[in-house]
Design goal:
CATH architecture of chain B: 3-Layer(aba) Sandwich
Number of helices of chain A: 10
CATH architecture of the largest domain in chain A: Orthogonal Bundle
Chains: A mainly alpha (about 300), B alpha/beta (about 280), C mainly alpha (about 300)
CATH topology of the largest domain in chain A: MetI-like fold
Oligomer: heterotrimer
Helix content of chain A: 55-70%
Number of helices of chain B: 12
CATH superfamily of the largest domain in chain A: MetI-like
Number of domains of chain A: 2
Number of domains of chain B: 1
Shape of chain A: globular
Largest sheet of chain A: none
Structural class of chain A: mainly alpha
CATH class of chain B: Alpha Beta
Shape of chain B: globular
Distance between the termini of chain B: 33 Å
Mean pLDDT of chain A: 89
Structural class of chain B: alpha/beta
Radius of gyration of chain B: 18 Å
Low-confidence stretches of chain B: 1-26
CATH superfamily of chain B: P-loop containing nucleotide triphosphate hydrolases
Distance between the termini of chain A: 51 Å
Strand content of chain A: under 5%
Mean pLDDT of chain B: 87
Radius of gyration of chain A: 25 Å
Strand order of the largest sheet of chain B: 6-7-8-3-9-10
CATH topology of chain B: Rossmann fold
Largest sheet of chain B: 6 strands, mixed
Order of helices and strands of chain B: HHEEEHEEHEHHHHEHEHEEHH
Low-confidence stretches of chain A: 1-6, 8-12, 292-296
């Protein structure tokens, strides 16, 4: 290997073992092709399994029926689907405003020590293992009240959303030219109006995308819900009660020993993935702004 | 009109300055700075500036880049202080009231003293109409025009900015679809819609092509009929073409202020003469 | 006039308050988790993380097997994922035809969008049977590795190996994305200089591109490590959840995250809950250190781009 080194100090070219060097190069390049192929294989396998197993168990009553005991035909995850939507709603209602507000702060105070510290801590929060968020929410919101609740689950998910939303909001606001802010101020806009109705408004498509990415990410989270939302075999949309969620239902069916439930878990996983993908795809569309791109 | 355009295109012809004209103007000082200093952090970029801006006149501020002319302009409507670490000291009298200590908020000052920047800044999320109406929307409820009143003001402002004929059929379209020159005239219309007494132009043609530049210059010349205009430019020919009075700035100092014809033909300060004749800057 | 100032002040205070939620949350997490884990940490001291006992009835706890399992499964994941991630990133940044770049990058990125529980489901119902019936017999019998400590013991399927493979798939997109980013940050001139000196394309990568991108790639790998350490659901579903230290990758085990996920809702006495909280605090601390390290390494190379 070292023998074939072509570049030596001083930049002199050493034409040694040219054929061997060519072969080594070709082999290594082929290896990167193989690595790329291998890196995409798991996704293809997983999606293929999901489609094959999931589509078969996916009937319309999957969306409309409640879970049934083992052995009974039919049954669905209506309560889990509703629960997941409810949890997403709670998490977004809390996480989006706080995340966007924090992002505005980071963008407007950029360069100050406070902003740097908050940005850094936001990244730390983003790297927090989801299970730690789960036990934290349990300790804070479940333990003192002695019962699980949708609200606790939603807040746990909001904790995961905030840093993502804050950072994308900051990035998007940074893309808005300073000149636009100045133009609004010069027109007699107050600072808060400038920030909200000019700067934030201009950055909105990107912020919506970031928000949707955050929602897509928390939609499939399970660990923060294990000891907070907990799951529920029955229909519930009460924020104070334990609530079912698609990921929780998939989890409990997957670790069960029954083929029927495995089939339900596949169907649930397919629905969950579809939900995540729909949100992600709408995120792409959200980036298209109302008036398109003109001059500049 | 046509003759005026030719003159503008020639680029060097000076506007005749009649004594009568000056006499009227002198009686109407709209904006006056006294002992104005502007700082970025500890650096003083405008030093002890004394400038008068008269109604129905175009006042040009010229000088080499970095001389502080834009900063001086931005002190007039309190835009300077929006930059982190920037502050101004001294007086800026607007119709006799100090904008810094006379009980006016920055927002009020800016409503009365409009500003247009070097690069066009249409609000990208708004239609052409909404851009022009942007300053009206934020007026106190009592002063806010009705919907039809707004439409009228928008048309008037666009006409004054010589843009109406080009956009009247697509007021609902996005403002970013306009060309650079149209965008700049849109920004002028936006600034005019709230009926400011003074219009500040910070190198308004720096990013425009020659044709658009000519249209904006022509517009500036016409605007002085009912608004005092201050224009910062690094282009001496432009100052000569559009302004009644010219201020020459160098290294933060107002070296010489006077009738444009006088400044360009018989400057009293040697530094002004050196700049005018192209020896530096 | 003053209403304008009041509005500005209200806005500034509101936005600052929202930003302060971030430090407040982190502080709360640290305080609450450590406080809840304190009885166990206080009773067993730092030795909590090196003891192997786990006796809920008698209240005797030690997290060594979970710590061991966390480290082994994560390292296994890195060993499996790194070559694929770096290789595919090199492919995308250096060799891939233009039309192939977008789709392949998209597919790799998409791995990061699949929820953990779906990986777990796939792990239980597809990966584990495959490991048990094909891979493990192949490794043990066909390759005659059955007598080496790493591949000994019965092939249950649920195992450290399964956890490592699942984690490898899950962290691959993160390593690949960061690597791609730092490779793109290597100046063109570096590559051209090497090629101009007569280097082959591989030599150009080895001598000009990789040295320049090295600490960024290592940062990406450590970022992946941070992900692997804290990953919960998929691991819980395939690792077997056994409080034991075994050298064999065929044996079931525990990770810190999976132990919490698996036992928390069954823990009834306070010391058990406290022990699990202490495990959580330890996990928090480890991921914190690892993430900081990754951030520092990546920011050194890519500067503002990925930091």
């Amino acid at each position: 290997m070292t023998q074939s080194t072509a570049v030596v100090p001083g930049g002199r070219r050493v034409p040694r073992n040219v054929t061997r060097r060519r072969v080594v190069s070709a082999v290594m390049i082929v290896l990167t092709y193989l690595a790329a192929a291998a890196a995409t294989l798991p996704l293809i396998f997983i999606l293929a399994n999901l489609l094959r197993q999931g589509v078969g168990s996916l009937h319309w009553h999957f969306f409309t029926s409640m879970p049934k005991p083992v052995g009974e035909e039919g049954g669905g995850m209506a309560n889990a689907i509703a629960g997941t939507l409810m949890l997403i709603t709670i998490a977004s209602a809390i996480g989006l405003p706080i995340g966007i507000g924090a992002g505005l702060f980071l963008a407007e105070q950029r360069g100050t020590r406070v902003a740097n510290v908050v940005r850094f801590l936001s990244d730390v929060l983003n790297g927090l293992p989801s299970i730690v968020v789960g036990i934290f929410a349990w300790q804070l919101l479940v333990r003192p009240f002695h019962h699980f609740s949708a609200l606790a689950g939603g807040i746990a998910l909001a904790v995961m959303m905030i840093p993502i939303v804050a950072r994308t909001t900051e990035e998007m606001i940074r893309l808005v030219p300073v000149s636009l802010r100045e133009a609004a101020l010069a027109l007699g806009y107050t600072r808060w109006r400038t920030s909200l109705s000019i700067v934030l408004r201009s950055a909105l498509p990107g912020i919506v995308t970031g928000a949707l990415v955050a929602v897509a990410r928390i939609a499939g989270e399970t660990a923060p819900l294990l000891f907070t939302a907990f799951g529920n075999q029955f229909w519930s949309t009460s924020p104070g009660q334990p609530i079912a969620a698609l990921p929780l239902q998939i989890f409990s069916y997957a670790i069960s020993p029954y083929d029927d439930w495995h089939a339900q878990a596949w169907a649930g996983a397919l629905v969950l993935i579809a939900l995540v993908l729909v949100i992600s795809v709408s995120a792409r569309f959200a980036t298209r702004s109302r008036y398109g791109r003109g001059h500049d | 009109m046509v003759a005026g355009m030719t003159e503008l295109a020639m680029g060097v012809t000076l506007r005749p300055q009649t004594g009568e004209h000056s006499a009227i103007a002198l009686s109407d000082v709209r904006l006056e700075t006294r002992g104005l200093d502007a700082f970025f952090g500890a650096t003083r970029v405008v030093k002890d500036a004394a400038l008068r801006v008269y109604d129905r006149q175009v006042t040009a501020i010229i000088g080499p880049s970095g001389c502080g002319k834009s900063t001086l302009l931005r002190c007039l409507n309190r835009m300077h202080e929006t930059v982190v670490g920037a502050r101004a000291e001294g007086e800026v009298l607007f119709s006799g009231t100090d904008v810094y200590s006379g009980g006016m908020s920055a927002v009020t000052v800016r409503r009365h003293i409009g500003m247009v920047f070097q690069r066009p800044t249409p609000f990208p999320t708004m239609s052409i109409r909404d851009n022009v109406a942007a300053g009206l929307k934020i007026l106190p409820r009592a002063d806010r025009p009705t919907r039809s009143g707004t439409d009228e003001i928008v048309e008037q402002a666009l006409r004054r900015a010589a843009l109406w004929e080009e956009v009247k059929d697509r007021l609902k379209q996005g403002a970013v679809m306009l060309s650079g020159g149209q965008q700049q005239r849109l920004c002028i219309a936006r600034a005019l819609a709230t009926q400011p007494e003074v219009l500040l132009l910070d190198e308004p043609t720096a990013s425009l092509d020659p044709t658009s530049t000519m249209r904006v210059e022509e517009l500036v010349y016409e605007l002085r009929a009912d608004v005092a205009v201050v224009i910062v430019t690094h282009n001496m020919q432009q100052a000569a073409r559009v302004s009644d009075r010219t201020a020459f700035m160098l290294a933060g100092e107002l070296v010489e202020v006077g009738a444009t014809s006088a400044i360009f033909t018989a400057p009293t300060d040697a530094r002004t003469e050196a700049y005018i004749t192209g020896r530096f800057g | 006039m003053n209403t304008a100032d009041a509005g500005d002040r209200a806005y500034r205070v509101t936005v600052a308050a929202m930003a302060m939620v971030v430090p407040l949350l982190l502080l709360l997490v640290s305080v609450e988790v450590v406080r809840a884990g304190w009885p166990a940490l206080h009773r067993f001291g730092i030795a909590f993380f090196t003891r192997s006992a786990w006796d809920a009835v008698n209240g005797d706890f030690g997290a060594a097997p979970a710590v061991y399992g966390t480290i082994v499964s994560s390292i296994l994941a890195l060993v499996l994922a790194t070559p694929l991630a770096v290789g595919s990133a090199l492919f995308l940044s250096e060799f891939a035809p233009r039309w192939l770049q977008q789709p392949v990058a998209f597919l790799v990125d998409l791995l990061a969008a699949i929820p953990s529980v779906v990986y777990g489901l796939w792990g239980i119902l597809v990966l584990i049977p495959w490991l048990r019936e094909t891979v493990m017999p192949f490794l043990a019998d066909t390759l005659k590795l059955g007598n080496t400590p790493l591949f000994s013991g019965p092939a249950y399927g649920n195992s450290m190996l399964a956890a490592g493979i699942i984690l490898a798939i899950m962290i691959l997109p993160y390593i690949a994305a960061v690597t791609r980013e730092v490779l793109l940050a290597v100046p063109r001139s570096q590559r051209e200089a090497a090629l101009a000196l007569g280097a082959t394309r591989w030599e150009m990568i080895r001598d000009a591109v990789l040295p320049h991108a090295r600490s960024g790639i290592i940062g990406g790998i450590i970022l992946g490590l941070g992900r692997a350490l804290g990953e919960t659901m998929a691991v819980t579903m395939v690792i077997g959840n056994t409080h034991e230290i075994s050298a064999s990758l065929f044996s079931p085990g525990y990770t810190m995250a999976s132990q919490i996920a698996n036992e928390f809702s069954e823990a009834t006495n306070d010391m058990h809950i406290s022990a699990l909280m202490a495990v959580g605090a330890g996990l928090f601390a480890i991921t914190l250190v690892v993430n900081l390290l990754a951030r520092w390494l990546v920011s050194r190379v890519a500067g503002e781009r990925t930091a």
